[in-house]
Amino acid sequence: MRKLITTFCFLLVGLLLAAQTNVTRIEGVVLEANIAAAPIDFANVSLQPAGVYTLTNARGEFVFDRVNPGRATIRIEFLGMVPIDTTVVIQPGRIHRFEFRMQTESFRLQEVTVVATQNKAGQSTSSVISRQAIDHMQASTLTDIMQLLPGVQITSPDLTRANYVSIRGFGPADRRFGEQRSGENKALSNSNSFGTAIIVDGAPLSSNANLQSLDAIKDVSNYYTTVGGYGGASNGTRIDAGLDTRTLSLDNVESVEIIRGIPSVEYGDLSSGAIIVKSKTGPSPLQVRFKINPLTYQGSLSKGIALKENRGVLNLSGDYLYGVTNPTETYDHYQRFTAKGIWAKYFGKLYASTALDLWYGRDSRKPYAQDERTDRTGSSNEFGIGFNHNGTLIANQGWFQSLEYVVAGRYVDKLESYNWLIGSAATQYSTSKIDGTIVGNNPGERLYDVDGNEITRIPSGAEKVWATYLPNEYVSEYEIGGKEINVNAKIKANFYKQWETANNRIILGADYKMDGNRGKGVVYDDMTPPRYNGSNRGYRSRPFTEVPFIHQVGLFAEDRLQASLGSRDLLLTAGARFDYINGKTVVAPRTNLAIDLFPNLITLRGGYGITAKAPNLMHLYPENAYFDYRITSFSNLPTDLTIVKTRVYDPTNPDLKIATNRKQEVGLDLNLGKRRRLSLTWFDELRENDYRFGISINSYISELNQEYILRDGKLVEGNLLRIYNAFNQPVNDVYHHNRGLEFELDLGRFDAIRTSLFINGAYLHRESKLQGPEFVANSRPGSIERYIGIFDQHRKTEFYETALTTFRITHNIPSIGFVVTLTPQIIWILNEWDVFNNNWQNDGYEVIDRYISYNDGLIHTYDKSKGRGGEEFEYLMPLFSSSDYREFSEKAISQIYFHLNLTKEIGDSFTASFFVNNLFNSRPKYQSTKEPGKMVELGQKIYFGFELKMLIK
Fold this sequence. Notes:
The chain has 953 residues and is mainly β. 4% of the residues lie in helices and 54% in strands. The model is unreliable at 15-22, 171-188, 219-238, 780-784 and 881-886 (pLDDT under 50).
């Protein structure tokens, strides 16, 4: 790493010194496109591909000095105005003067943009969503606007549960048939959202410090073997998803870019893709919004103030949102309040912006009729404050064009409270956190057997520890308190050189991230611990202050080469980044290429890259696994006697790797003339080491446990039990293989009928499985658990497949500011199925590979020549029939749904919007292919909403 840093610094210094004289100059003025032609102050002007920026002055003027000759693109942006993107040819030795006129962004323009637009070929495959598109669809969260992407099904919002975003995948909300799949395989759907980066104004928002979990390292198996003994089992798993997008308001957002393909190397700590959010900066009138639909009520304010005496611009915004599960049942509801202020100013050659965010979110569950028995209530509160300072220093010295930096931090205070009546809870419980402790009901009391041998074991520090046998039913109250701290910084140097027929833009940079948690953790009364279910698995509180921080250091370098090969253009972007994360390292090369096969007609593009997602705090520093074993317990005595032995295991996985995603794609862009185009993108993404919490060979343990019984008032030895235990630990055994074809067809606007047609869609196919070993212990009635069978590979693979097409037919009447979009969406294919990777024998069973023996607790290779091995082993290899381990398979019928969005400007101050999802309330039913005789209902209920926007100038 030291050599890499040294090389990086020498390269940076070398490029800084490679300066040369260039006298080319660009002068321009930006005016309003009206009769008055008023100058526009504070407009952001960028010169690409050099990557330099400036702002217009009070007269609307801007200047670029020392500009390299050749072809360049001037892009002008101003809040509330339609961006200008113009390509010009810069001649050496001349002063170039330009005049630009910007139109006010409104629905009275000849053409409006209410769809996601694709970026230029040769860069990361991405979609840009404008403020106009966000307003037209009345989006409340980032999850809503994802529906503008190809291949994403349009759904109605639900703000009473966490909202996640998923890119080119099947996220947690993508269960189409209402089936509850196995808890073990929930990891197969959550990793996509976990690997999606959300970056706001250059700073990533991180969920790496989230520890809001009652118990991530739950036991997944617990087996007993003894001569004349008994057996039992319990199971459960958990995996983390990404960032909850509900706390991010869209009312202060100017645009969103969603990178689906291979991102630039400047973006780290991601595997699926990135969502780049740009906040509003610039003068703007006071804007008041009111939004209402059956499940959501929202109001917001925003304004951009141009400060006097050239002191910059101050943008202020705030909103309040209330969401319910059902309009007639408000026991489950969510509330959100956000406020944001951004101050931006140009200090000579430095443009800097400073932002402060505040937000508060609350999920509440109040008692209702079905909760009368369990007395279940709960709430989750989140208060956060964020700081972001970023800037661009224009150098324009030879190769060295500019220096960009970001410094940001977030503090999030979370508190979850739960209360419910727990039934069938009778089990042993100890308060000890020390391995090997054996205690009774009274702290410090020592107990002996009939021969005077001490049964208890009270090590130093356990003098106040006690044990009990929990009642069969009790009310449990507990809290989970987290205080997440996220800090990040980034610096990037931009270099640019124009040659005769080519230009190079080089970026060199470094970034740093720190994630930690200083919360109190899980807190509860030891007499009423949470959610005991009768197993030996013990809960213990752990202050989050005991968990170390995650430190990430990244270095990146990238070269963007644009060249002319005769009449053909070539654009090549290639780079690599190096990440160091708490002692773990990864190198991620990435490249994108585009070349004109036929100039101005067909462009071929492709890309290859590796993306890497850091583990979170729970992956790196999981909580200990505690097991409480009953030595003896008697409920028939006047005073209960309970003796409990505690074992403690560390689930930390030193071999845990940084999860990576191999992304590759090939695309074709066809220019159909008159701003019409067709874009096709085939992609293939392979993730072989995604995270989950799961059982492994290392987390399986076996030991002997001596039980005691009461005889003539004395404790004597009873059964000697062989106890098998298993706990989850962080592992890298989740396999995803995503493939698909995306398309976008933009037929532009047909002026004769004032209607534009945009069609996009995708075919997506995913194969998912767990690659680690699978453990079986299938006791039959009356049998004794003696062995734990091991299949070296998981036997089941899950498949998901969907194909859909979305038509967006937009009709607008500029003279009255009216826009209506009819969106038919056809779902051609919607399938899920499982395949068992079995090595079936002729008589219908599968032979295990290894087993854990009850004799010594060790792992042995199974002799497959023995077949099922008689009564000793056959219960581990049950005969499979049509009703045993039935494969999950569901193939839905084709469906079509119609959605409507309508926007109308009323005068110069008001805009009204209305939308309807599933306009005709289509709810098709079909015969289940998984369960014959069962009818499955598809689609969603009709859903509608209204928004009113008012501008006060």
